[in-house]
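not sure who needs this but someone in the group chat was asking about Cysteine synthase family protein from Algibacter aquimarinus so here u go. i didnt clean anything up, its just raw.
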Amino acid sequence: MKHRNQVFDNVLDLVGNTPLIRLNKIASKFKGNFFAKVESFNPGQSSKDRIALYIIEQAEKKGILTPGDTIIETTSGNTGFSIAMVSIIKGYECILAVSSKSSADKIDMLRTMGAKVYVCPAHVSADDPRSYYQVAKRLHEERKGSVYINQYFNQLNIDAHYKSTGPEIWEQTEGKITHLVACSGTGGTISGTAKYLKEQNPNIKVIGVDAFGSVIKKYHETREFDEKEIYPYRIEGLGKNLIPTATDFDSIDEFVKVTDEESAHMARAIAKTEGMFVGYTSGAAMQAIKQLGEEKRFKKTDNVVIIFPDHGSRYMSKVYSDKWMNEQGFFDSINEETTQKIQY
Ligand code: PMP
């Protein structure tokens, strides 16, 4: 068993080195071998542990941070949790400016992890002084020696994955990986991992997963920001209404768009078939595999690595709630044909 004879100094020693697990059933009707990089094995249960630890340690190396200093970010999601966790161990104050749309559960969780949470109105524009962007910026300016993680516009987000996720996958597949499929939010995961892998073998295909309602895929294809692409959607952590500089569009070969509904059913199908309780975007990434598989894009000898970014426990009141699924109308179209389609 992994770690059987080891004692760790603290939880941060367990960040990274997540397992690569073969998917035995969910994609079995397609040609190729499929493996999930299961990021919920990080101590903070998501891939964001990697960037929180890396960015904070880089600031320490540069002498920007000393114990007692403040770390600031604008997220109620996985990144917030990971920064709070790293801050506790390393003795920093963690301030998170979050939108009033964030669920009470998430805010409670962050406060439990020692973060100071500023709840900012969701309905104001990004340049309004009350917005969470502006609150974070102001706090950063006011506090000398503070670090603003700014994950969407921080090159270190890419570097964290270039230094860890990429080499891990290369070693775990013994250099035999042929495809990387990953959701793109900030773009840090896919860009950093792709950069490392393509340096080892430029023929590896890198496929990003985007949401309907996000501008990322269109921008990749045209290098133009098309506002018409933007509309509300439900999957959190996937896609964006702006172009993050933490996405290196040149390292990604193509994007596939997935729907909220199919991704939700796919997340549930992963639990039922593989026994892996993963988050909504893992369902989105797997849905992309299904779409590519149906286009016969994989061959027998291919080794496809799919990033599963976080754990299912964070979605109990959403994807894993029948009530929520019903409210979204996601059960309405279920008939025998669709049930068969999603069950594999
Ligand atoms: N899935 C989830 C659940 C996330 O929180 C994120 C990060 N926003 C992603 C996927 C995408 O990762 P990245 O930001 O590195 O593109």
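also The chain has a mean pLDDT of 94. if thats useful
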